[in-house]
Amino acid sequence: MEGDAVKLSRTATLTGCAAGLSLLLGSFLLISPMAQSAEGAQETCSAGELQGRYVFTGQGLNLHYGAFDFDGAGKFLGKQTSLRHAVAVREVLSGTYTLDADCTGTMTLQGQPGGTAHWDVFVTADGKKGRMIRTDSGATGVRTFEQ
Question: What is the C-alpha to C-alpha distance for residues 49 and 143, in angstroms, rounded to an integer?
């Protein structure tokens, strides 16, 4: 009778371990596709992610409000009104952009006083919003844009 109790205890322990291992393995198999999907979502950006009209606001030494029209192929046009030294100035913009698979990239913006400006760009995976920071030495500026 005591031997039966030991066998029953071992059987219960082994069954518990098997059930725990099954739950652990099942959880891993369920989570694994989600992790792969999340990784894949980070690799969906390209220049085509930015297409159409985006309004922006920005500041550095001056304030800027305007719009970019992205062509989805690496070029854009735009307009902005800048408050420079308490004087409103309207400017026509143009430039190029790149967007890597991780939704980061660069912009080269022409049309502002002082010449060409270079920016690092960070875009949401759906391409609807972005942030920019100027990378030219001695210059400061940030912009936020959204569709």
Answer: 18
pLDDT digits (tens, 9 = 90+) for 34-54: 444 445 444 589 999 999 999
Q: 48 phi and psi, to 5 degrees?
A: -65, -15
What SS3 class is residue 74? coil
Closest of 115, 107, 118, 116 to residue 54, by C-alpha: 107
- Rounded to two decimals, the pTM is 0.68
Q: Which of the 8 DSSP states describes residue 19?
A: H
Which residues neighbour 82 within 8 Å (Cβ) at sequence distance 6 or greater? Answer: 62, 63, 64, 88, 89, 90, 91, 112
92: which residues sit within 8 A by CB, 6+ positions away?
A: 77, 78, 79, 111
